[in-house]
Design brief:
Length: about 550
């Protein structure tokens, strides 16, 4: 299991064995680079393995020091001390991204938890009813002996509805995920895993915030600055990932205002009309932070797609994900270990154009369906998971936002980003995923999010002094890579071979005539959406 995940932590690997429990860890050294902070870490009767960061660990440590003695400078030890003192209530005190498990040797009990929005992954299998296996990636569970059998319901749901990370189910039988904002307990008596929700989002967001605009704007800006400040806590080099949009430009402006030492900015280009390099350069003009540009060509996609898929274990989001992965490769070559990005703003401030539609989809920039259930065999299509959207927010817009945050958009984006950063031994931090920011934004009435067709209205006012007017007023650009053009051009034969392979592997899934017809229409320019094309390619890439 440790060997299967060594890319996640290239700096140290270790296993510890106790009565009824073995724990292993691959460490990427970010905070407290000493060997004392290696994991698995033991404190009294408790032993922990932990993935992620608790950004407010220094404040928590100061609160705990009156009753605890610390032997490291790590946030890992703070989790153990917090759990000792507050039990599972410690989770509500953490600002961060995390997945961890703690073994209590006296109680013979395992406790684990995942952060509020599921930034960090946690998978488990208890298929034999005897031995619980749990890991950050599915491939580690295969390495532990869990059989590699695809789940047809998950595949039907993906191909019919486009959903990938909407519940406990994964694309593999007998392998499940701990849900975001949940903890679990497992003891040696009943040998069952018991999940419970520890973070109930509507509690913090259902009531509208009716304070004056300027009061909310001032509070949100202060929280933005604090979220970024906390995420600069690192004992290794930190960089920034930039697009030319409002969100990452605001991130860059706040970082530049902090004047941190030895920071590099990163962006990618595809030498197409979608490149945002002019906006990025405009944002950086006159500053001292250097820029590294990762240049992706269509020819690089073929090998990268196969390699990245091997790290994903489940479907990923096409050429935009590949381009972003290539950016992390460049950062690692520069010895930049921690990277910040602007993820999360569109979901909390209703930035996508489909929030305007009567029947909103999930793809920015197109009103076409993102999936083609009509190309599936009826029997296969009928087994898809009729997932009941839990819509607790009380109004249309916030329910769609809630769907995107917990069921559709963010869950798969967070998974993609976790894998492509871990693939090359880097850590991605998203300051705007700070729960304090998301909660505050979600409490705002619709008029502060969308007004007269303008999206992210209040956010634009908040960052007005930070971002050039040309970036602030530019339309949201829906596509950042020429996926459609490349699949019709340079990558046409490559994609066609994968689609034909998918048809031959699963004739019981795909209607060959309808798939080939849709593919021909796409090649003829009859569709502005390539999402379903990539889904068919994925079947072949994953080799299911």
């Amino acid at each position: 299991m440790i060997g299967a995940q060594d890319h996640r932590g290239p700096d140290h690997s270790e296993a510890k064995y106790m009565v009824n429990c073995g724990m292993g860890h691959n460490r990427l050294k970010v905070i407290d680079l000493s060997d004392a902070a290696n994991q698995p870490m033991k404190r009294g009767n408790l032993t922990i393995v932990f993935n992620g960061e608790i950004y407010n660990y220094l404040e928590l440590k100061q609160e705990l020091e009156s009753s605890c003695t610390f032997t490291t400078e790590s946030d890992t030890e703070v989790i153990l001390a917090a759990y000792e003192k507050w039990g599972y209530d410690c989770l509500n005190r953490f600002i961060g991204m995390f997945a961890f498990v703690i073994w209590d040797e006296f109680k013979q009990e395992l406790f684990g938890a995942r952060d509020r929005f599921g930034v960090k992954p946690l998978y488990f299998s208890n298929s034999d009813g005897v031995c619980l296996k749990i890991a950050s990636e599915i491939k580690a569970l295969w390495a532990a002996g869990v059989s590699k059998r695809y789940d047809e319901v998950a595949w039907s749901t993906y191909l019919a509805k486009g959903l990938t990370d909407h519940g406990e189910r994964t694309f593999w039988k007998d392998i499940f995920q701990i849900l975001p904002g949940h903890y679990f307990r497992y003891d040696m008596q009943d040998k069952c895993i018991h999940q419970a929700r520890w973070y109930y989002f509507p509690t913090y967001t259902k009531a509208y915030d009716l304070r004056r605009d300027e009061v909310v704007e001032e509070e949100y800006l202060a929280l933005m600055q604090d979220a970024i400040r906390l995420r600069f806590r690192s004992d290794v080099k930190v960089g920034i990932n930039l697009s030319g949009g409002v969100d990452s430009s605001a991130l860059f402006a706040i970082v530049a205002g902090m004047n941190p030492p030895d920071v590099t900015a990163y962006t990618f280009v595809t030498h197409s009309k979608y490149d945002e390099l002019p906006f990025v350069k405009q944002m950086m003009e006159g500053g001292t932070i250097p820029l590294t540009v990762a240049s992706l060509s269509a020819l690089k996609v073929k090998n990268l797609a196969v390699d990245i898929q091997g790290f994903m274990d489940e479907p990923f989001g096409g050429i935009p994900t590949i381009a972003y992965a290539y950016l992390f490769e460049q950062a690692r070559k520069d010895s930049t270990i921690v990277l910040l990005d602007g993820n999360g703003m569109d979901e909390q401030w209703a930035g996508y154009d489909y929030y305007d539609f009567d029947n909103p989809g999930m793809i920015q920039g197109t009103k076409e369906p993102s999936n083609r259930p009509d190309c599936l065999r009826p029997d296969f299509m009928s087994i898809h998971d009729h997932f009941p959207w839990w819509l607790p927010m009380g109004d249309r817009l916030r329910n769609i936002q809630y769907r995107d945050i917990f069921h559709s958009k963010l869950p798969h984006n967070l998974r993609y980003n976790d894998r492509i950063s871990a693939r090359v031994g880097t850590e991605l931090r998203s300051p705007f995923m700070d729960h304090r920011l998301i909660e505050l934004a979600m409490r705002q009435p619709d008029i502060r999010k969308i007004d007269s067709g303008v999206h992210k209205v209040m956010l634009r006012r908040i960052v007005k002094k930070l971002v050039p007017e040309s970036i602030l007023q530019a339309q949201k650009r829906p596509v950042q890579t020429p996926q459609r053009e490349w699949l019709r051009g340079t990558l046409k034969e490559w994609a066609n071979s994968h689609i034909e392979n998918a048809i031959s592997r699963h004739p019981e899934w795909l209607d060959a005539y309808k798939v080939r017809t849709a593919w021909a229409l796409f090649q003829g320019g009859k569709s502005d959406n390539s999402n379903y094309i990539w889904q068919w390619v994925t079947i072949s890439l994953m080799g299911v």
